[in-house]
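Journal club prep, shared notes

We agreed each person brings one worked example of a sequence with its structure written out as tokens. Mine is Carboxylic ester hydrolase. I'm keeping it raw so we can talk through how to read the token line rather than staring at a rendered picture. Sequence first:
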Amino acid sequence: MSEPIVEIANGQIRGITKRSIEGYDYIAFRGIPYAEPPVDDFRFKDPVPVKNWTGIKDATKYGDICAQFDLTLRNFGGNDNCLFINVYTRSLKNVEKKKPVMVWIHGGAFLYGSGNDMHFGPDYLLRKDIVLVTFNYRLGVFGFLNLEDEVAPGNQGLKDQLLALKWVQQNIEVFGGDPNNVTIFGESSGAVSVHYLCLFHANKGLFHKAISQSGTSFHNWARVKNPKTYAYALCRALGNKTTDPKEAVTFLRSIGSDELVKAQEEVRRASDNVGNRFSFGPDIDDKSSDPYMPVAPEIEALKGVHIPYLIGHNNREGILALLDDKTFTALQKEKYQYIQENFEKTILPRTLDTLKHYNLTPEDLRKEYFGNKAISLDTSGIYADMCSDLYFVESVHRVLKIQAEKSKTPTYYYKFSYSGQVSLTKALLLNPITGACHFDEVEYLFFVKLRIPLGLGSLKRGTPGYRVMERMTEMWTNFATYGEPIPEKTNLLTEEWPPIDDGTNLRCLNINKFIAMETVENLDKRFLSIQSSSTKS
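Then the structure, token by token:
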């Protein structure tokens, strides 16, 4: 296979031609540095653009992932030097004919993941005429140490994302991409990141359309509550009882990345309070000299998103909650009993804020979903549905209501319901529960290489799952190209998909074995009705 060479702003890079799982060839430039390594005294600081180099830099292999606990291999991996970007295109010929650019922001609770092809292979999306970009950004304490002080104001991981988008603007034309037609898209915490970018940085000309898959700034896991308490807990776990921000930063810079990740995992798993699991992530960084998020995002979100926006969720996101997040195996009988007896402790701290928004208590919530039934293995399906609504659907619906009222640009709403193919999450659960779980839709946009060693295989031509992939990639790339997911009906896309126009009765494309428009009642109506029945009683 040939090794193409291009010249970007920083110097020359050598890529590689690869054969896709679909049988076509594409060109990949992998592991391109977009920032100076955030090591030593640069750890916990804002990213700095990479310096120019001489000679030809190798971009045939992925760069290291950011330091994290590897959920798949069950070990600690990655390191500080991880700020790399990957670019994929079908051809470098006729680069003057600019292609739409799609920039993927990976999920993983701001703790896990990378832009590499283990989860995000380009094979499906590059069937279409686009340029695809993926990248790494700092995770956990490395990207989100927030001592509520100028020495560590937080959100370095989000600033990495901004710098990656600036790199795209500066360099994407070399790969045949159109810097004036960039769509950002992401799933889970990547989708939250997309919403944050739309709220705080949409006026910088870095992107022009956005897709949020199962994530918004309203999610009760999207922002850390009291972040400095976790930072000092991390210091204590490593033997330092300081409460001085400068001393804490100096100390944490002296710790190796593996040891720091291990201590971070200990802090996260030290309590049965589920809030600890989201101990390092975004929050207000108003102590920064260059803040990313100077005010609470839920306040900024009330203004709406004012670029074409595609947003949605899967129909049973909460199946993910049936996994024990300490062992990543299915919840056992004893765990359900613990949830039954300690219900309030097992919901996220910011979930209490969500409930207050509707004038509800945790007990109101439990009664609404379970009635007089106990939370148990037998009612795990109800538990999954409650978690779907509480942790995903409610916040998406809240954004949709704002969009219907405030935005003059189109917003498209989808619900992904297809569960015909065994998903990664269900493979871990060993549970035949029906419905599309968190992350399931991603497997119909990207080739997830991890499926192969797990014995799950790839999508086969002629199967319903393959047809779902064809529709998903067509709609997503249509949106990136035209700002509409279905600009006209075809044999593949047999429905019209109009944008929402009402925040209560939501126009929604249900993506299943086939696609169909339906009207979905905003979840706030259900939650508000719980409030009124509580008030009456």
